[in-house]
Amino acid sequence: MEKRVGRRGFLVSGAVVGAGALVSACTSNEPAAAPTTAAPQAASAGTGNDEPGTKVVIGFSAPAADHGWIAAIAKNAADQAKQYSDVEFKPVEPTNDINQQITAVESLIAAKVNALVILPNDGEQLNQVARKAMDAGIPVINLDRVFPDKLSYRTWVGGDNYGMGVAAGNYIGKTLKDKGVSNPVILEIQGIATLPLTQDRSKGFADALKTYGFSVTAQQDAKFTVESGTQVASNLLQAHKKIDAIWNHDDDQGIGVLAAIKEANRSEFFMVGGAGSANAMRDIQADSGVLKATVTYSPTMAGSAIKLARLIAQGKGLSDLVEQQVPQSITLASETITKENAAKYLPLGFES
Length: 352
What we know:
Layout: E1 56-61, H1 68-81, E2 87-91, H2 98-110, E3 115-118, H3 127-135, E4 140-143, E5 155-159, H4 161-178, E6 186-190, H5 196-210, E7 218-221, H6 226-239, E8 245-248, H7 251-264, E9 270-275, H8 278-286, E10 291-296, H9 301-313, E11 329-332, E12 336-337, H10 342-345
Parallel strand pairs: 1-2, 1-3, 3-4, 4-5, 5-11, 6-7, 6-8, 8-9, 9-10
Antiparallel strand pairs: 10-12
Helix pairs in contact: 1-9, 2-3, 4-5, 6-7
């Protein structure tokens, strides 16, 4: 189980559920799938579940906003809670200190909130306090980084790391095939190589490229930071005099990657980003540089977690499903954002 890395979580398998207001993506991960132009909606329209119901207090705890993605997690949660007159949103101070987060969650348990949404700094280390909440009858909606004990959460909701890699690999593989490129030089700039989430992204990428007869030429991690993104990209650009495509796992570190590319005055290749930041979408929309697409790992999942917490606390299910209960696990798919659909996805992007 990985330790805290300043943001982002783990891949966990689960059913991909298209549910009312759940902001899931629209594309398939099959190689032949083309990016859709239909954007997911930020909120569902007029279902019975949206009508005011029993007043509920939803506690919220997440790491400190040391990345644009984490900042967007907190904003999406708060904004979604404001949509309901029957929800009292009770966030605690964000922190990157494990013990402080445990203490903060304990304060929400003591306050007897009706539901808890937790994005833990470390799922393993906060497992026991989440279990304490569940044992106290408070349903826990585990966001992104998973608790290892399934008895520690009622529902998990998060993104698809393997699917990100598949989406990026399909876009790059198809683009190169359409151009008639053989034996392409494909570079991969990871987040942190030792993390399972990164390994899942890389495996999805390799698996998708393989279907086109391609493979990764060189791979290096950039620690999810702008500074490392610049340094790693500079090294790779110096080492490879000709490049056909780059996949950068993370749009936050992508700021540094793109700075290095600009400094090197290189433009013979195209690049795909990861996570779906607003600045990346604007670059893609402008179509004035090497960045041609990004694949989503959307912080809108926090808004979906608030919606799920409200439904669970009120004893409701998802209106689009036959079942009476909210699912135990929900994995959001990874969408491919290109020039054609960037404008529609921009409102859901986060600022890096």
